[in-house]
């Protein structure tokens, strides 16, 4: 970003401070989930991913989490031990391992998402209509704003 053309005449320091406050809030919100559900952030993220794309291969999980396959395997191993996910060989290609969300994992994802909903919605409804629209638009544009691309 050209520092001479910052949005709404904000200084670079003001933008840095706003972004820090935003990311700090998200970090603390996610850390609260880690404490509530006794899983690390990677495990919670993986369960939420598998809720949307299950079964997934270890390669797909590794790409989505942006970690080496060995790291993804350790996360999966911990979740298998807690009966939240299962691992089995693909019937079409025995070299490929598929990871699927199990009922205990589905229960935890629901609890995590209920937690988010229960925290956010009461606060969200305190906003006026333009503020609500702004928050929703920001959420829709977050991947673009942060230059997050889908893994190939």
Describe the SSE topology.
Blueprint: H1 12-37, H2 41-52, E1 56-57, H3 58-65, H4 69-81, E2 85-89, E3 97-101, H5 103-124, H6 129-145
Antiparallel strand pairs: 1-3, 2-3
Helix pairs in contact: 2-5, 3-4
Q: What this model shows, in words?
A:
- This protein is mainly alpha-helical.
- It has a single domain (39-145), classed as Arc Repressor Mutant, subunit A, CATH 1.10.10.10.
- It has helices at 12-37, 41-52, 58-65, 69-81, 103-124, 129-145; strands at 56-57, 85-89, 97-101.
- The protein has a three-stranded antiparallel β-sheet with strand order 1-3-2.
- β2 (85-89) and β3 form a beta hairpin.
- The chain starts with 11 loop residues before the first helix and ends in a 7-residue tail after the last helix.
- The model has no long low-confidence stretch (mean pLDDT 91).
